[in-house]
Design brief:
six-stranded mixed sheet, 560 residues, globular, 23 strands, eight-stranded parallel sheet, alpha/beta
Amino acid sequence: MSQSLERNSADLVVCGKIFTSENNQIVEAIAVKDGKYVYVGDKQGVEAFVESGKTEVVDYTGKGLVMPSCGNGHAHYSIGVALPIVGTVALGQTPDKFLADIVPAAVKKARETGAKSIFGFGWNYITFMENMPTRQQLDAICSDIPIYFADDEGHKGLANTLMLVKAGIMKADGTVLKKDKDIRGGEIVMGADGTPTGFLKEQAGTYTRSFLDTAALYPTDIAKIVVSKVQEHLLAEGYTMYIDGWGNYFFNDNFFKAAQQVDQDGKMNFVLGLTYEIESWMNVDEELKKAADVQKYATTHVKTNWLKLFMDGTVEGGTGFVDPLYPDGHQGLANWTEEELTDITRKTNANGISMHIHTMGNKAVNTVVSAYANGGKDELRNTLVHVRNVDEADYKRMADHNMYIVSGMLWHHGPSWVADYIREHGLAPVGQEAESYPMKSYFDKGIHVTSHSDFPATSGSPDDPFGIMEIAVTGVLAGEDGTPWWPEELLTREQAIASLTINIAKQMLIENERGSISTGKYADFLLVNKDVLTCPVTEIHTAKPEATYFEGKKVYEKKD
Protein backbone atom coordinates (compact mmCIF):
# COMPACT_ATOMS: atom_id res chain seq x y z
CA MET A 1 0.00 0.00 0.00
CA SER A 2 1.44 3.36 -1.00
CA GLN A 3 1.49 6.45 1.19
CA SER A 4 2.19 9.94 -0.11
CA LEU A 5 1.81 13.58 0.76
CA GLU A 6 1.17 16.30 -1.81
CA ARG A 7 3.26 15.48 -4.87
CA ASN A 8 6.20 17.70 -5.68
CA SER A 9 9.84 17.10 -6.41
CA ALA A 10 11.73 15.30 -3.67
CA ASP A 11 15.22 15.99 -2.39
CA LEU A 12 15.99 12.26 -2.20
CA VAL A 13 14.51 9.07 -3.58
CA VAL A 14 15.64 5.61 -2.47
CA CYS A 15 14.64 2.36 -4.17
CA GLY A 16 15.23 -1.20 -2.99
CA LYS A 17 13.85 -3.65 -0.48
CA ILE A 18 12.58 -1.37 2.28
CA PHE A 19 11.33 -2.65 5.64
CA THR A 20 9.20 0.06 7.22
CA SER A 21 8.64 -1.25 10.79
CA GLU A 22 4.97 -0.43 10.13
CA ASN A 23 3.17 -3.76 10.59
CA ASN A 24 6.12 -5.57 8.97
CA GLN A 25 5.39 -3.85 5.67
CA ILE A 26 7.93 -4.06 2.83
CA VAL A 27 7.87 -1.43 0.07
CA GLU A 28 9.98 -0.61 -2.99
CA ALA A 29 10.62 3.12 -2.77
CA ILE A 30 10.64 6.20 -0.55
CA ALA A 31 10.81 9.90 -1.31
CA VAL A 32 12.17 12.53 1.09
CA LYS A 33 11.51 16.27 1.10
CA ASP A 34 12.80 18.75 3.71
CA GLY A 35 13.96 15.90 5.92
CA LYS A 36 10.67 13.98 5.99
CA TYR A 37 9.12 11.12 4.06
CA VAL A 38 6.65 12.39 1.48
CA TYR A 39 6.11 9.05 -0.25
CA VAL A 40 6.33 5.40 0.79
CA GLY A 41 5.32 2.83 -1.80
CA ASP A 42 6.27 1.29 -5.14
CA LYS A 43 8.78 2.30 -7.78
CA GLN A 44 6.15 3.40 -10.22
CA GLY A 45 4.58 5.79 -7.75
CA VAL A 46 7.85 7.37 -6.67
CA GLU A 47 8.68 8.48 -10.22
CA ALA A 48 6.37 11.48 -9.78
CA PHE A 49 8.74 12.81 -7.09
CA VAL A 50 11.88 12.72 -9.23
CA GLU A 51 12.98 15.96 -10.88
CA SER A 52 16.00 15.68 -13.13
CA GLY A 53 19.00 17.60 -11.84
CA LYS A 54 17.38 18.24 -8.46
CA THR A 55 16.42 14.93 -6.89
CA GLU A 56 19.14 12.60 -5.69
CA VAL A 57 18.24 9.02 -6.57
CA VAL A 58 19.78 6.06 -4.69
CA ASP A 59 19.09 2.65 -6.20
CA TYR A 60 19.81 0.11 -3.45
CA THR A 61 18.06 -2.77 -5.21
CA GLY A 62 19.76 -6.10 -4.57
CA LYS A 63 22.41 -4.57 -2.30
CA GLY A 64 20.89 -5.30 1.10
CA LEU A 65 18.06 -3.83 3.14
CA VAL A 66 16.75 -0.33 3.71
CA MET A 67 15.20 0.02 7.15
CA PRO A 68 14.53 2.62 9.85
CA SER A 69 17.60 3.65 11.77
CA CYS A 70 17.89 1.97 15.14
CA GLY A 71 17.65 3.05 18.74
CA ASN A 72 19.45 2.07 21.92
CA GLY A 73 17.07 2.19 24.87
CA HIS A 74 19.73 2.37 27.56
CA ALA A 75 23.51 2.55 27.59
CA HIS A 76 26.36 4.57 29.06
CA TYR A 77 28.30 5.89 26.11
CA SER A 78 28.79 9.14 28.03
CA ILE A 79 30.96 7.42 30.61
CA GLY A 80 32.39 4.82 28.24
CA VAL A 81 33.68 7.53 25.92
CA ALA A 82 34.69 9.85 28.77
CA LEU A 83 36.82 7.33 30.64
CA PRO A 84 39.84 7.26 28.32
CA ILE A 85 39.79 11.06 28.44
CA VAL A 86 39.32 11.66 32.16
CA GLY A 87 40.35 8.34 33.70
CA THR A 88 41.91 4.92 33.26
CA VAL A 89 40.35 1.81 31.70
CA ALA A 90 41.04 -1.57 33.34
CA LEU A 91 39.09 -3.91 31.09
CA GLY A 92 40.36 -7.48 30.76
CA GLN A 93 42.92 -7.25 33.55
CA THR A 94 43.88 -9.74 36.26
CA PRO A 95 44.28 -8.52 39.85
CA ASP A 96 48.07 -8.83 39.57
CA LYS A 97 48.19 -6.86 36.33
CA PHE A 98 45.81 -4.29 37.78
CA LEU A 99 48.10 -3.62 40.74
CA ALA A 100 51.37 -3.94 38.84
CA ASP A 101 50.54 -1.89 35.75
CA ILE A 102 47.10 -0.25 35.59
CA VAL A 103 47.03 1.58 38.92
CA PRO A 104 50.68 2.78 38.71
CA ALA A 105 49.98 4.14 35.21
CA ALA A 106 46.91 5.97 36.50
CA VAL A 107 48.93 7.46 39.35
CA LYS A 108 51.66 8.57 36.95
CA LYS A 109 49.07 10.25 34.72
CA ALA A 110 47.53 12.02 37.72
CA ARG A 111 50.86 13.33 38.95
CA GLU A 112 51.80 14.60 35.50
CA THR A 113 48.49 16.44 35.06
CA GLY A 114 48.12 17.63 38.64
CA ALA A 115 44.83 15.77 39.09
CA LYS A 116 43.26 15.87 42.52
CA SER A 117 41.69 12.42 42.19
CA ILE A 118 42.20 9.18 40.24
CA PHE A 119 39.25 7.54 38.57
CA GLY A 120 39.07 4.29 36.63
CA PHE A 121 36.62 1.71 35.34
CA GLY A 122 36.51 -1.84 34.04
CA TRP A 123 37.78 -4.52 36.40
CA ASN A 124 35.71 -7.70 36.42
CA TYR A 125 34.18 -9.09 39.59
CA ILE A 126 34.34 -12.75 38.56
CA THR A 127 38.03 -12.38 37.67
CA PHE A 128 38.87 -10.45 40.84
CA MET A 129 36.61 -12.12 43.42
CA GLU A 130 39.18 -14.66 44.65
CA ASN A 131 41.98 -12.08 44.93
CA MET A 132 40.26 -8.73 45.49
CA PRO A 133 42.76 -5.85 45.76
CA THR A 134 42.63 -4.07 49.12
CA ARG A 135 42.91 -0.44 50.11
CA GLN A 136 46.25 -1.24 51.68
CA GLN A 137 47.56 -2.54 48.36
CA LEU A 138 46.33 0.60 46.63
CA ASP A 139 47.91 2.71 49.41
CA ALA A 140 51.24 1.06 48.70
CA ILE A 141 51.01 2.46 45.16
CA CYS A 142 49.54 5.85 46.07
CA SER A 143 48.41 7.13 49.45
CA ASP A 144 48.28 10.89 48.80
CA ILE A 145 45.69 11.05 45.96
CA PRO A 146 42.17 9.58 46.34
CA ILE A 147 41.69 6.51 44.10
CA TYR A 148 38.39 5.02 42.93
CA PHE A 149 38.07 2.24 40.32
CA ALA A 150 34.56 1.10 39.33
CA ASP A 151 34.04 -2.41 37.97
CA ASP A 152 32.93 -3.16 34.40
CA GLU A 153 29.25 -3.21 35.42
CA GLY A 154 29.47 -0.02 37.46
CA HIS A 155 28.03 -1.80 40.50
CA LYS A 156 31.15 -2.15 42.62
CA GLY A 157 34.24 -0.13 43.40
CA LEU A 158 37.75 -0.28 44.81
CA ALA A 159 39.11 2.62 46.84
CA ASN A 160 42.29 3.50 48.66
CA THR A 161 42.29 4.72 52.25
CA LEU A 162 42.39 8.42 51.36
CA MET A 163 39.29 8.01 49.19
CA LEU A 164 37.46 6.36 52.11
CA VAL A 165 38.64 9.10 54.46
CA LYS A 166 37.43 11.80 52.07
CA ALA A 167 34.02 10.05 51.90
CA GLY A 168 33.76 9.91 55.70
CA ILE A 169 33.83 6.12 55.84
CA MET A 170 36.90 5.98 58.07
CA LYS A 171 39.56 8.21 59.60
CA ALA A 172 43.19 8.20 58.58
CA ASP A 173 44.09 6.56 61.89
CA GLY A 174 41.86 3.58 61.05
CA THR A 175 38.82 4.60 63.07
CA VAL A 176 35.71 3.24 61.35
CA LEU A 177 32.94 5.81 60.81
CA LYS A 178 30.67 3.78 58.51
CA LYS A 179 30.64 0.02 58.09
CA ASP A 180 28.88 -2.94 56.52
CA LYS A 181 25.53 -1.58 55.24
CA ASP A 182 25.56 1.87 56.87
CA ILE A 183 25.19 3.45 53.43
CA ARG A 184 21.72 2.68 52.24
CA GLY A 185 21.51 0.31 49.33
CA GLY A 186 25.17 -0.57 49.51
CA GLU A 187 27.74 -2.59 51.38
CA ILE A 188 31.13 -1.56 52.73
CA VAL A 189 33.02 -4.84 52.79
CA MET A 190 34.87 -5.25 56.08
CA GLY A 191 38.14 -7.09 56.65
CA ALA A 192 39.21 -9.47 59.38
CA ASP A 193 40.69 -6.48 61.25
CA GLY A 194 37.28 -4.85 61.48
CA THR A 195 38.09 -2.03 59.03
CA PRO A 196 36.97 -1.49 55.42
CA THR A 197 38.88 -3.47 52.83
CA GLY A 198 38.31 -0.81 50.16
CA PHE A 199 35.82 -3.03 48.29
CA LEU A 200 32.44 -1.30 47.94
CA LYS A 201 29.19 -2.73 46.60
CA GLU A 202 26.32 -0.91 44.91
CA GLN A 203 25.34 2.40 46.54
CA ALA A 204 28.34 2.38 48.86
CA GLY A 205 30.32 2.79 45.66
CA THR A 206 28.23 5.60 44.18
CA TYR A 207 28.33 7.39 47.53
CA THR A 208 32.12 7.18 47.70
CA ARG A 209 32.49 8.16 44.04
CA SER A 210 30.54 11.36 44.69
CA PHE A 211 33.52 12.62 46.73
CA LEU A 212 35.81 12.64 43.68
CA ASP A 213 36.79 16.07 42.39
CA THR A 214 34.08 15.90 39.77
CA ALA A 215 34.10 19.58 38.76
CA ALA A 216 37.72 19.27 37.62
CA LEU A 217 37.29 15.72 36.38
CA TYR A 218 34.39 16.43 34.02
CA PRO A 219 33.93 20.08 32.94
CA THR A 220 31.57 21.17 30.16
CA ASP A 221 34.28 21.47 27.50
CA ILE A 222 35.22 17.81 28.04
CA ALA A 223 31.53 16.85 28.01
CA LYS A 224 31.09 18.52 24.59
CA ILE A 225 33.94 16.41 23.20
CA VAL A 226 32.23 13.35 24.66
CA VAL A 227 28.88 14.23 23.04
CA SER A 228 30.55 14.49 19.64
CA LYS A 229 32.42 11.19 20.07
CA VAL A 230 29.23 9.46 21.25
CA GLN A 231 27.47 10.70 18.12
CA GLU A 232 30.24 9.41 15.88
CA HIS A 233 30.05 5.99 17.53
CA LEU A 234 26.25 5.75 17.36
CA LEU A 235 25.91 6.76 13.71
CA ALA A 236 28.54 4.23 12.64
CA GLU A 237 26.53 1.45 14.29
CA GLY A 238 23.20 2.59 12.89
CA TYR A 239 21.70 4.28 15.96
CA THR A 240 19.96 7.66 15.76
CA MET A 241 17.86 7.34 18.94
CA TYR A 242 19.54 6.81 22.28
CA ILE A 243 18.80 7.10 26.01
CA ASP A 244 21.88 7.62 28.18
CA GLY A 245 21.52 5.95 31.56
CA TRP A 246 24.02 8.15 33.43
CA GLY A 247 23.32 11.77 32.52
CA ASN A 248 24.76 13.08 35.78
CA TYR A 249 27.28 10.30 36.43
CA PHE A 250 29.84 12.85 37.59
CA PHE A 251 27.30 14.49 39.91
CA ASN A 252 27.03 17.64 37.82
CA ASP A 253 24.89 18.86 34.89
CA ASN A 254 27.74 19.26 32.44
CA PHE A 255 26.65 16.51 30.06
CA PHE A 256 23.18 18.10 29.87
CA LYS A 257 24.73 21.51 29.18
CA ALA A 258 27.09 20.10 26.56
CA ALA A 259 24.31 18.28 24.69
CA GLN A 260 22.21 21.43 24.60
CA GLN A 261 25.11 23.47 23.23
CA VAL A 262 25.96 20.90 20.55
CA ASP A 263 22.36 20.88 19.33
CA GLN A 264 22.08 24.66 19.44
CA ASP A 265 25.21 24.77 17.29
CA GLY A 266 23.40 22.62 14.70
CA LYS A 267 25.79 19.70 15.11
CA MET A 268 23.55 17.00 16.62
CA ASN A 269 22.48 14.28 14.22
CA PHE A 270 20.63 11.96 16.57
CA VAL A 271 18.00 12.18 19.29
CA LEU A 272 19.57 11.98 22.74
CA GLY A 273 17.55 11.04 25.80
CA LEU A 274 19.10 12.00 29.13
CA THR A 275 18.24 10.57 32.52
CA TYR A 276 18.80 12.28 35.85
CA GLU A 277 19.96 9.70 38.37
CA ILE A 278 19.08 9.70 42.07
CA GLU A 279 20.83 7.37 44.52
CA SER A 280 19.11 5.85 47.55
CA TRP A 281 21.47 7.61 50.00
CA MET A 282 20.54 11.07 48.70
CA ASN A 283 17.93 13.56 49.94
CA VAL A 284 15.17 12.58 47.52
CA ASP A 285 13.12 15.79 47.61
CA GLU A 286 16.18 17.93 46.90
CA GLU A 287 17.21 15.67 44.05
CA LEU A 288 13.71 15.63 42.56
CA LYS A 289 13.95 19.43 42.30
CA LYS A 290 17.24 19.04 40.42
CA ALA A 291 15.69 16.44 38.13
CA ALA A 292 12.93 18.92 37.29
CA ASP A 293 15.46 21.73 36.85
CA VAL A 294 17.47 19.93 34.14
CA GLN A 295 14.41 20.08 31.89
CA LYS A 296 15.73 23.52 30.93
CA TYR A 297 18.40 21.79 28.83
CA ALA A 298 15.85 20.16 26.49
CA THR A 299 16.08 21.04 22.79
CA THR A 300 14.75 19.67 19.52
CA HIS A 301 17.12 16.69 19.68
CA VAL A 302 17.84 16.56 23.42
CA LYS A 303 15.11 14.98 25.55
CA THR A 304 15.59 15.25 29.31
CA ASN A 305 12.40 13.77 30.72
CA TRP A 306 13.55 10.62 32.56
CA LEU A 307 14.42 9.94 36.18
CA LYS A 308 16.85 7.06 36.70
CA LEU A 309 16.98 4.95 39.86
CA PHE A 310 18.66 1.70 40.87
CA MET A 311 16.20 -0.72 42.44
CA ASP A 312 18.80 -3.45 42.93
CA GLY A 313 22.13 -4.70 41.58
CA THR A 314 22.96 -7.69 39.40
CA VAL A 315 21.84 -11.25 39.99
CA GLU A 316 25.16 -12.87 39.04
CA GLY A 317 26.93 -10.38 41.32
CA GLY A 318 24.74 -11.43 44.25
CA THR A 319 23.09 -8.02 44.64
CA GLY A 320 19.99 -8.56 42.50
CA PHE A 321 16.83 -8.58 44.66
CA VAL A 322 15.36 -12.07 44.27
CA ASP A 323 12.74 -14.53 45.51
CA PRO A 324 13.40 -17.40 46.15
CA LEU A 325 16.65 -16.58 47.91
CA TYR A 326 20.15 -17.30 46.69
CA PRO A 327 21.41 -20.75 47.70
CA ASP A 328 23.35 -19.25 50.64
CA GLY A 329 20.15 -17.69 52.01
CA HIS A 330 20.61 -13.99 51.17
CA GLN A 331 18.17 -11.98 49.06
CA GLY A 332 20.30 -9.25 47.47
CA LEU A 333 20.29 -5.47 47.92
CA ALA A 334 17.10 -3.46 47.54
CA ASN A 335 17.65 0.30 47.37
CA TRP A 336 14.05 1.39 47.87
CA THR A 337 10.85 0.20 49.51
CA GLU A 338 7.69 -0.12 47.45
CA GLU A 339 6.15 2.80 49.35
CA GLU A 340 9.10 5.05 48.60
CA LEU A 341 9.11 4.13 44.93
CA THR A 342 5.39 4.72 44.68
CA ASP A 343 5.81 8.19 46.16
CA ILE A 344 8.76 9.02 43.89
CA THR A 345 6.87 7.79 40.84
CA ARG A 346 3.81 9.86 41.74
CA LYS A 347 5.85 13.05 42.23
CA THR A 348 7.99 12.48 39.15
CA ASN A 349 5.10 11.68 36.81
CA ALA A 350 3.24 14.72 38.11
CA ASN A 351 6.05 16.81 36.60
CA GLY A 352 5.71 15.03 33.24
CA ILE A 353 8.92 13.06 33.80
CA SER A 354 9.01 9.32 33.16
CA MET A 355 10.62 6.73 35.43
CA HIS A 356 13.59 4.68 34.23
CA ILE A 357 14.63 2.09 36.83
CA HIS A 358 17.46 -0.45 36.75
CA THR A 359 15.68 -3.65 37.77
CA MET A 360 17.22 -7.13 37.65
CA GLY A 361 15.86 -9.67 40.13
CA ASN A 362 12.26 -10.86 40.05
CA LYS A 363 11.54 -9.44 43.52
CA ALA A 364 12.89 -6.08 42.36
CA VAL A 365 10.66 -6.30 39.28
CA ASN A 366 7.64 -7.05 41.46
CA THR A 367 8.38 -4.01 43.65
CA VAL A 368 8.84 -1.61 40.75
CA VAL A 369 5.75 -2.88 38.92
CA SER A 370 3.70 -2.29 42.07
CA ALA A 371 5.06 1.23 42.43
CA TYR A 372 4.28 2.08 38.81
CA ALA A 373 0.81 0.56 39.01
CA ASN A 374 -0.07 2.41 42.22
CA GLY A 375 1.70 5.74 41.72
CA GLY A 376 2.30 6.20 38.02
CA LYS A 377 0.62 7.70 34.99
CA ASP A 378 0.29 5.01 32.35
CA GLU A 379 0.69 7.49 29.48
CA LEU A 380 4.25 8.33 30.58
CA ARG A 381 5.47 4.80 29.76
CA ASN A 382 7.43 4.19 32.95
CA THR A 383 10.27 1.82 32.20
CA LEU A 384 12.07 -1.14 33.78
CA VAL A 385 15.62 -1.61 32.52
CA HIS A 386 17.44 -4.97 32.05
CA VAL A 387 14.85 -7.23 33.78
CA ARG A 388 16.58 -10.57 34.29
CA ASN A 389 13.65 -12.48 35.80
CA VAL A 390 9.90 -11.87 35.91
CA ASP A 391 7.18 -13.55 37.96
CA GLU A 392 4.26 -14.65 35.78
CA ALA A 393 1.71 -12.46 37.59
CA ASP A 394 3.72 -9.30 36.88
CA TYR A 395 3.44 -9.58 33.11
CA LYS A 396 -0.26 -8.71 33.18
CA ARG A 397 0.32 -5.66 35.38
CA MET A 398 3.05 -4.48 33.00
CA ALA A 399 0.63 -4.70 30.08
CA ASP A 400 -2.33 -3.21 31.95
CA HIS A 401 -0.33 -0.12 32.98
CA ASN A 402 1.58 0.46 29.73
CA MET A 403 4.98 -0.23 31.29
CA TYR A 404 7.96 -0.48 28.98
CA ILE A 405 10.78 -3.01 29.24
CA VAL A 406 14.29 -2.15 28.06
CA SER A 407 15.56 -5.69 27.72
CA GLY A 408 19.03 -7.16 28.05
CA MET A 409 18.50 -9.10 24.83
CA LEU A 410 22.24 -9.07 24.13
CA TRP A 411 22.86 -11.12 27.30
CA HIS A 412 20.57 -13.97 26.21
CA HIS A 413 23.52 -16.32 25.61
CA GLY A 414 26.46 -17.98 27.31
CA PRO A 415 29.10 -20.68 26.87
CA SER A 416 27.74 -24.19 27.31
CA TRP A 417 29.16 -24.41 30.83
CA VAL A 418 27.91 -21.08 32.18
CA ALA A 419 24.57 -22.22 33.62
CA ASP A 420 26.34 -25.01 35.51
CA TYR A 421 28.92 -22.51 36.77
CA ILE A 422 26.18 -20.16 38.00
CA ARG A 423 24.44 -23.10 39.66
CA GLU A 424 27.57 -24.54 41.28
CA HIS A 425 28.67 -21.17 42.66
CA GLY A 426 25.22 -20.14 43.89
CA LEU A 427 25.17 -17.02 41.69
CA ALA A 428 21.42 -17.21 41.06
CA PRO A 429 18.36 -18.72 42.76
CA VAL A 430 17.61 -22.31 41.80
CA GLY A 431 15.84 -22.39 38.44
CA GLN A 432 17.06 -18.95 37.36
CA GLU A 433 20.50 -19.95 36.07
CA ALA A 434 19.81 -19.82 32.32
CA GLU A 435 16.12 -18.92 32.21
CA SER A 436 16.93 -15.31 32.81
CA TYR A 437 16.22 -12.57 30.25
CA PRO A 438 12.75 -13.05 28.74
CA MET A 439 12.00 -11.52 25.34
CA LYS A 440 9.19 -13.23 23.44
CA SER A 441 6.93 -13.24 26.52
CA TYR A 442 6.68 -9.46 26.29
CA PHE A 443 5.44 -9.59 22.71
CA ASP A 444 3.05 -12.44 23.52
CA LYS A 445 1.57 -10.56 26.47
CA GLY A 446 1.20 -7.15 24.82
CA ILE A 447 4.13 -5.44 26.55
CA HIS A 448 6.35 -2.99 24.69
CA VAL A 449 9.94 -4.21 24.74
CA THR A 450 12.99 -2.32 23.49
CA SER A 451 16.65 -3.22 23.13
CA HIS A 452 19.67 -1.82 24.91
CA SER A 453 23.40 -2.47 24.70
CA ASP A 454 24.27 -1.11 28.18
CA PHE A 455 27.68 -0.12 26.79
CA PRO A 456 30.32 -0.32 28.21
CA ALA A 457 28.86 -2.97 30.56
CA THR A 458 28.34 -5.38 27.66
CA SER A 459 30.02 -8.39 29.34
CA GLY A 460 31.51 -9.66 26.10
CA SER A 461 28.29 -9.15 24.15
CA PRO A 462 27.88 -7.05 20.98
CA ASP A 463 27.11 -3.36 21.09
CA ASP A 464 25.71 -2.95 17.57
CA PRO A 465 22.05 -3.58 16.64
CA PHE A 466 22.71 -6.50 14.30
CA GLY A 467 24.90 -8.39 16.76
CA ILE A 468 22.12 -7.95 19.31
CA MET A 469 19.50 -8.99 16.75
CA GLU A 470 21.26 -12.29 16.02
CA ILE A 471 21.33 -13.19 19.72
CA ALA A 472 17.64 -12.30 20.08
CA VAL A 473 16.80 -14.60 17.16
CA THR A 474 19.20 -17.50 17.85
CA GLY A 475 20.07 -17.36 21.56
CA VAL A 476 23.73 -17.78 20.62
CA LEU A 477 26.65 -15.37 20.35
CA ALA A 478 28.61 -15.82 17.12
CA GLY A 479 31.84 -17.72 17.78
CA GLU A 480 30.87 -18.77 21.29
CA ASP A 481 30.84 -22.43 22.30
CA GLY A 482 27.27 -22.47 23.48
CA THR A 483 23.80 -23.83 22.82
CA PRO A 484 20.69 -21.63 22.48
CA TRP A 485 19.48 -20.24 25.78
CA TRP A 486 15.82 -20.53 26.65
CA PRO A 487 14.60 -21.19 23.08
CA GLU A 488 10.99 -20.46 24.05
CA GLU A 489 11.97 -16.79 24.48
CA LEU A 490 13.64 -16.26 21.10
CA LEU A 491 12.25 -13.61 18.76
CA THR A 492 11.44 -13.49 15.09
CA ARG A 493 13.58 -11.18 12.98
CA GLU A 494 10.68 -8.77 12.63
CA GLN A 495 10.16 -8.65 16.39
CA ALA A 496 13.85 -8.00 16.94
CA ILE A 497 13.78 -5.11 14.47
CA ALA A 498 10.67 -3.70 16.14
CA SER A 499 12.47 -3.72 19.49
CA LEU A 500 15.34 -1.81 17.85
CA THR A 501 13.26 0.75 15.95
CA ILE A 502 9.61 1.72 16.44
CA ASN A 503 9.42 0.45 20.01
CA ILE A 504 12.35 2.63 21.08
CA ALA A 505 10.68 5.62 19.45
CA LYS A 506 7.62 4.79 21.56
CA GLN A 507 9.76 4.46 24.68
CA MET A 508 11.11 7.95 23.96
CA LEU A 509 7.58 9.27 23.22
CA ILE A 510 8.59 10.29 19.69
CA GLU A 511 6.87 7.57 17.63
CA ASN A 512 4.78 10.16 15.78
CA GLU A 513 8.02 11.61 14.42
CA ARG A 514 10.47 8.71 14.17
CA GLY A 515 11.06 4.96 14.47
CA SER A 516 9.43 3.77 11.26
CA ILE A 517 9.27 4.67 7.59
CA SER A 518 5.95 6.46 7.15
CA THR A 519 4.87 9.63 5.38
CA GLY A 520 5.18 12.71 7.53
CA LYS A 521 7.87 11.25 9.77
CA TYR A 522 11.50 12.31 9.78
CA ALA A 523 13.58 10.34 7.29
CA ASP A 524 15.90 8.49 9.66
CA PHE A 525 16.98 5.28 7.94
CA LEU A 526 19.82 2.89 7.14
CA LEU A 527 21.25 1.32 4.03
CA VAL A 528 22.29 -2.06 5.44
CA ASN A 529 24.82 -4.15 3.51
CA LYS A 530 22.90 -7.38 4.12
CA ASP A 531 19.25 -8.35 4.03
CA VAL A 532 18.89 -9.32 7.69
CA LEU A 533 15.32 -10.50 7.04
CA THR A 534 16.38 -13.37 4.77
CA CYS A 535 20.12 -14.04 5.19
CA PRO A 536 21.21 -17.09 7.22
CA VAL A 537 20.56 -16.32 10.88
CA THR A 538 24.21 -16.95 11.71
CA GLU A 539 25.18 -14.09 9.38
CA ILE A 540 22.94 -11.39 10.84
CA HIS A 541 25.75 -10.18 13.12
CA THR A 542 27.94 -9.41 10.09
CA ALA A 543 25.50 -6.77 8.80
CA LYS A 544 26.70 -3.17 8.95
CA PRO A 545 25.27 0.17 7.84
CA GLU A 546 26.63 1.30 4.49
CA ALA A 547 25.08 4.65 5.31
CA THR A 548 23.07 6.25 8.10
CA TYR A 549 20.57 9.01 7.29
CA PHE A 550 19.14 11.45 9.81
CA GLU A 551 16.33 13.78 8.79
CA GLY A 552 17.03 13.01 5.15
CA LYS A 553 20.76 13.75 5.27
CA LYS A 554 23.55 11.21 5.07
CA VAL A 555 25.38 11.55 8.39
CA TYR A 556 27.54 8.43 8.18
CA GLU A 557 29.02 6.51 5.26
CA LYS A 558 31.03 3.33 5.61
CA LYS A 559 34.61 3.66 4.51
CA ASP A 560 36.06 0.96 2.27
